[in-house]
Design a protein that fits this description.
- The complex is a heterodimer of chains A (268) and B (266).
- With 268 residues, chain A is mostly helical.
- Chain A has helices spanning 2-20, 24-49, 60-81, 87-93, 96-101, 106-112, 120-136, 143-173, 180-184, 186-192, 201-210, 218-224, 241-261.
- In chain A, helix 2 packs parallel to helix 7 and helix 8 packs parallel to helix 13 (241-261).
- In chain B, helix 4 packs parallel to helix 7, helix 6 crosses helix 7 and helix 7 (144-170) runs parallel beside helix 12.
- Chain B is built from twelve helices and no strands.
- The mean pLDDT of chain B is 93.
- Chain B has helices at residues 2-19, 22-49, 58-74, 82-92, 95-100, 105-135, 144-170, 172-175, 179-192, 206-210, 220-226, 232-264.
- Classes of the chains: A mainly alpha (268), B mainly alpha (266).
């Protein structure tokens, strides 16, 4: 099932890549555009730091580390599953039914639908900022800390992917409300770019325990930078990101199956 | 007068078209509110560190955040208004039919877009703004004259916003695909309108440049008029000048493009 899904995903994605290449000038625009538009958030942070030396007690390299971790993870999830937000539209116009009768996993089909290579722009700027941050932060690097970085990036991508899939399941029930999931995907990514000390404790609690986005970067980064986390957490929490990711993916998969089962076709 | 009624009807149609998606509107309200909350906390941290940044106090910075969320969809700051439909008409060749109609193409789309903006202000923009004003101290004027001036700046901002997006849409006559230019619209709109940071809080030099670009007419000018930080007549003149310049440029590009569409044939 999984292998079959990945294969179907690859075939469909490849088709969309070829299709996107048809209008070369427009494709070039979109790649550069995607890099710039997703990099704007960091430009905003740089603009802020042209006026101040720290934000919420965190320095620019430290915030860049948060930004790099979150943007890279989110970029990977967005590249792989970002197309899921057109699902509501497909259900509305009835074209979703076509996917249901094809002999390939539905999630792979909708995930690869309109696969856009331009989204590499987001990953790229995330990696660039992350690279700079790793070089610039004042950290006493240990083997554990070095290993933690790639693990956190992959776990973060999985956590954001779970949010995308859960959002897709949500769209089955509230087709027109697709935009709500933007609050959690794009909104979550924006939130994580700033240090937790900036936000109210209740918000931090919610993002740690209810919708555990904090494990994308806040919690592990606080460990790497040896900064106190605004709410008390046990020491092992810094290494819990993969576990949280597995849990999120399991829940999202469950939500997706429930959503798929309760899908009713359009029509009057 | 007959044609004025026609364009009024188109505007009403634009309003009603967007008003029919109630769940989508509610979803948009929710999203704008969440983003507003995130931004408010970061701005409060920034103004905590640098009180008086850009001439704003904390209450003004908070007001600016919620006004930005209010106008985000209203002025289609990252795109997504009339220009999206127009791009599709050009891409599919449907524009050829539009050009046969005995109406002015630019005014037709302007009217529809102003109608859309009207709905998105009332249906989508007002709620996050009121929500923000209930939760955080904001700097709002008490006298009616300030609100009236603010309303005028909003209308002018809608025309400037349309002028920019109309030019972008016409470029599809040459590019054949609107996705790239749509991205450019998004970047320039978000950055130069001051969605990332108020334009008056930009560092010197860059700030001087961005404050005279047309995007400044979208969020910064209405915000400053609302909070009494700008000379009202100067603000009107700035916005009106850009509105006229952009609409005129749109006319020029349109006449160049329509000569070409005959060759392309859709």
């Amino acid at each position: 099932m999984f292998v079959e899904g990945v294969r179907a995903y690859g075939l469909i994605a490849g088709m969309w890549v070829r299709s996107g290449m048809t209008y070369r000038a427009s494709f070039a625009f979109t790649v550069v555009g995607n890099l710039l538009v997703t990099g704007l958030d960091f430009v905003g942070i740089l603009l802020m730091f042209s006026q101040v030396d720290s934000l919420g007690g965190w320095s620019l390299p430290e915030i860049a580390l948060l930004y790099g971790l979150s943007a890279t993870s989110f970029g990977i999830a967005d590249l792989v599953l970002g197309s899921l937000d057109v699902l509501g539209g497909r259900m509305r116009d009835g074209s979703f039914d076509v996917l249901l009768v094809r002999p390939a996993p539905v999630l792979a089909q909708v995930g690869a639908d309109r696969f856009a290579l331009r989204r590499l722009g987001r990953v790229t700027q995330g990696v660039v900022v992350l690279g700079w941050a790793l070089a610039a932060v004042d950290v006493d690097w240990s083997a554990v800390k070095v290993l933690l970085v790639p693990v956190v990036v992959v776990s973060g991508a999985a956590i954001f992917s779970a949010v995308f899939v859960a959002g897709a399941a949500f769209q089955v029930f509230a087709q027109d409300a697709a935009e709500v999931q933007n609050a959690f995907t794009y909104g979550g990514n924006t939130l994580l770019q700033y240090p937790p000390s900036v936000f109210g404790k209740d918000l931090v609690r919610g993002v740690t325990f209810m919708l555990p986005l904090a494990f994308v970067n806040w919690v592990p980064a606080a460990y790497v930078l040896e900064r106190p986390y605004p709410i008390g957490l046990p020491g092992w929490a810094a290494f819990a990101s993969p576990l949280v990711a597995v849990g999120c993916c399991a829940l999202a998969g469950l939500a997706w199956r429930t959503g798929l089962r309760s899908y009713r076709s359009t029509g009057s | 007068m007959g044609s004025a009624r026609l364009y009024l009807a188109v505007a009403v149609g634009g309003f009603r078209r967007y008003a029919s998606y109630r769940v989508a509107t509610a979803a948009g309200v929710f999203t704008n509110t969440v983003f507003g909350l995130i931004l408010v906390y970061t701005y409060l941290a920034l103004w905590e560190e640098r009180p008086g940044l850009g001439g704003y106090d904390q209450a003004q910075a908070v007001t600016y955040v919620w006004l930005g969320q209010c106008l985000y969809a209203t002025l289609a700051i990252q795109g997504g208004g009339a220009e999206k439909d127009l791009m599709e008409r050009i891409g599919t060749g449907g524009i050829a039919v539009d050009l046969y109609r005995p109406v002015d193409l630019q005014l037709w789309w302007l009217a529809g877009d102003v109608g859309r903006a009207g709905f998105q202000l009332l249906g989508r923009g007002v709620v996050p703004f009121v929500f923000g004003s209930l939760l955080f101290p904001m700097a709002l004027p008490a006298e009616a004259a300030a609100w009236a001036a603010f309303a005028v700046t909003l209308l002018l901002a809608a025309v400037v916003s349309f002028g920019i997006r109309y030019l972008a849409a016409l470029s599809v006559f040459w590019l054949m695909d609107g996705r790239g230019i749509g991205q450019v619209l998004m970047i320039t709109g978000v950055f130069f309108s001051g969605m990332v940071l108020p334009l008056n809080a930009f560092p010197d030099g860059l700030g001087d440049v961005v404050r005279v670009l047309p995007w400044a007419a979208q969020l910064q000018v209405p915000a400053d008029v609302l909070m009494g930080e700008a000379d009202v007549w100067g603000a009107f003149a700035f916005q009106a000048a850009w509105a006229v310049a952009l609409l005129a440029a749109g006319r020029l590009l349109q006449s160049a493009a329509t000569r070409r569409v005959v060759v392309q044939g859709g």
